[in-house]
Specification:
- The protein is mainly α.
- The chain has one domain (10-140).
- The protein has helices at residues 10-31, 37-46, 51-69, 83-99, 104-113, 117-140.
- The protein is globular and about 45 Å long.
């Protein structure tokens, strides 16, 4: 592995990670619940308790890049798949988050920080599945 030093930007990545941690911490302190995105979205769609504040949190996630775009250029979005691949990937991720009782943000960011054994196992499974998928697509299928 080599690092592209001309495009290596550790400070914005560190700031973004810190902001994610801060938002997750404030959400748990203010609501007593973790900020797992799939759980929040499911609760908003099903009409669960605290629907309004959860919807506002999710809206903030969607509006943050637009706000950032007022001050700096947004990165170019590039898809390396067709629409069918994107839809299939989205459906598989959605099904996986329901079976896994949460998504990477819920388990990886919030669950591990609470030392949850279930979240540690879930995050290890997410990572292993991602590594295996990349290996299969790039090295076995030649994608």
């Amino acid at each position: 592995m080599t690092i592209d030093w001309l495009n290596f930007t550790p400070w914005p990545a560190l700031a973004g990670g810190a902001l994610i941690g801060l938002a997750a911490s404030l959400f748990v302190l203010g609501n007593g619940r973790i900020a797992g995105i799939s759980g929040l979205l499911g609760s908003v769609l099903e009409g669960g308790e605290g629907r309004g504040e959860k919807a506002l949190f999710l809206l903030g996630l969607l509006l943050a890049p637009l706000l950032w775009g007022l001050f700096a250029a947004l990165p170019t979005i590039e898809f390396q798949s067709d629409w069918l691949g994107l839809v299939l990937a989205g459906l598989l991720v959605g099904i996986g988050t329901r079976y896994g009782a949460g998504c990477t943000s819920g388990h990886g960011v919030c669950g591990i920080s609470r030392l949850s054994p279930r979240s540690l196992v879930a995050t290890l499974v997410f990572m292993a599945a991602g590594f295996a998928t990349v290996y299969i697509v790039r090295h076995l299928l030649g994608g």
